[in-house]
Amino acid sequence: xxxxxxxxxxxxVSPVLTAAAQQYPVKPVRMVVxxxxxxxTDIVARLMAPKMAEALGQQVVVENRGGxxxxxxxxxxxxxxxxxxxxxxxxxxxxxxxxxxxPKLGYDTLRDLAPITQSVSVTSVMVTHxxxxxxxxxxxxxxxxxxxxxxxxxxxxxxxxTHLAGELLKLMAKxxxxxxxxxxxxxxxxxxxxxxxxxxYENSLxxxxxxxxxxxxxxxxxxxxxxxxxxxxxxxxxxxxGYSASGWYGLLAPAATPKHVIARLHTEAVKALRAPDIxxxxxxxxxxxxxxxxxxxxxxIRSETEKWANxxxxxxxxxx
Length: 320
Fold this sequence. Notes:
Blueprint: H1 3-23, E1 29-33, H2 40-56, E2 60-64, H3 71-78, E3 86-91, H4 92-101, H5 109-112, E4 113-122, E5 124-128, H6 137-147, E6 152-155, H7 161-173, E7 178-181, H8 185-194, E8 199-203, H9 204-213, E9 217-221, E10 247-254, H10 259-273, H11 276-283, E11 287-289, H12 294-314
Parallel strand pairs: 1-2, 1-3, 6-7, 6-8
Antiparallel strand pairs: 3-10, 4-10, 4-11, 5-8, 5-9
Helix pairs in contact: 2-10, 4-12, 7-12
């Protein structure tokens, strides 16, 4: 067989692959948010989606699919066709914690999903209802020790950063505070503002206006360093050395999604995160844009999974 006969199929295939790469996307992209509308994950998704849609030339439709601390929506995407038309704005809970809480989980993050980019890192704030008689972390811990489990805290679901923050505090301070899980950050916030629960570890994206209006009391931030958004609030670590619990979100597609599609989604997601107006809106609410590579995000998920698995085991956390 001559060389031209061997090269002909390759010459025919190459333009086809190039055309496929250029054609994506040819229809709207669905971005699943695994929580109800109005929460912090939803806010980030709805900021990024229009920017990505403009660059992709197709709609990016945000779809809320809440439940199980983000695991239901994340699993839905993991089991979707790997064609780049269904992606998820995943969170620490559904991506790095859910498997430790539930060994029967229907997906494995790094086996069944392809990381695109970490979107943001977000600080949470320890907040209480105004009726709680504690002005700082020290007083709250003293109140918890006297109450013997009478204090309770809301979370946005089992395995979410708000749940992890609460259990980490209980473990390190040796106090008993009852966990009350809700189906997302927005319902948990409503419960806190109404006085249905005593306290929470609310995401700065949604809690800052309520602290400033006096509807809730901000006691401290969960990050290792003070927040530029709320500089007057101390860190929990200033009272409880070594404490640190920050949330994060990121985009992923089903595993086996073609590499050229992942690359295109990564390019447009990073452009969105680096747009001056998006940076201003995110930083103004206490969120820090990250825009990592798929490889960096993969390594980050792996390290976070190991870190929080140790807490799940030590605190004997359950999907109650």
